[in-house]
Amino acid sequence: MDTDKIEARKKQARAWFEALRDQIAMAFEAVEDALPASAPFADRPAGRFTRTPWSRADHAGAQGGGGVMAMMTGRVFEKVGVHVSTVFGEFAPEFRKDIPGAADDPRFFASGISLIAHLHNPHVPAVHMNTRFVVTTKSWFGGGADLTPLLERRRRQDDPDTLAFHAAMRAACDAHAAVAPYEKFKKWCDDYFFLKHRNEMRGIGGIFYDYLETDFDATFAFTQDVGRAFLGIYPELVRKNFTTPWSEAEREEQLVRRGRYVEFNLLYDRGTIFGLRTGGNVDSILSSLPPVVKWP
């Protein structure tokens, strides 16, 4: 591939992920501001993101990029991270066989956004969203978004929040049907976010895709629309639920269910594994874990 062209694509993708991060952070801070005075924790100050830059070295000790970890704790969001990283260098030898195009040439570039939100209110579902652009001797986009209701009665495919979230993800796919078949990506998500040791899904799904390299312009446009779809639907779901009162029993159920989140991210999550194997920022990688959790 033409070097100038791939360098331009790297810059284009990185700029989008950083812009999306800023838009999401602004939207989440607006949610913090919008909490009505009658709602739980309304007497607390509205949360604001704190941004912390970090840098890394690759396995040989060479400078290898870094990122910015953006974290917020507030009166609506118990813990939310919206992170962007852009890393490069060489894969460690034991990792090269696992990455397309890296076996013969270990050099790589990866830029992306990763988001996880855990809310105080058990009626507001937790959410994850991640999109990325990876370059080896090949290049591709990957990512997706999935929703995790914490109360049993909300973990149904006919729940209004579930329907709205799936509709948003379907719309993003349908707008780019040539490269983004919705049913395939929905099933991929269901299969991926599955806790094999418990024989259950982590949440209610969404979409998941990887190694999407058909055409840069088409797959980049789709990846952008995944971000826009998330930005359009999730703050709306938070506002819909953030004034609902909850009981101690519901808080207990939320904390126990969060344990499933921890189990998945530590046992199966490819993003966690990739970040740790490439020398990423440990605090940023593990910020996906909820702040309070129980295993009864």
In total, how many beta strands?
9
Distance between the termini: 54 Å
Helix content: 25-40%
Shape: globular
Strand content: 25-35%
Radius of gyration: 19 Å
In brief, what are we looking at here?
The chain is an alpha+beta fold and 296 residues long.
Task: Walk me through what this model shows.
It is built from 7 helices and 9 strands; from the N terminus they run H-E-E-E-E-E-E-H-H-E-E-E-H-H-H-H. The chain is an alpha+beta fold and 296 residues long. Helix 1 runs parallel beside helix 4 and helix 2 packs antiparallel against helix 4. The longest helix has 32 residues.
Please give the structural blueprint.
Elements: H1 3-34, E1 50-57, E2 63-72, E3 77-90, E4 107-119, E5 126-135, E6 139-148, H2 160-174, H3 182-192, E7 194-195, E8 200-201, E9 205-212, H4 216-241, H5 248-267, H6 270-277, H7 282-285
Antiparallel strand pairs: 1-2, 2-3, 3-4, 4-5, 5-6, 6-9, 7-8
Helix pairs in contact: 1-4, 2-4
From the structure above, extract its key features.
about 300 residues; alpha+beta; seven-stranded antiparallel β-sheet; two-stranded antiparallel ribbon; 7 helices; globular
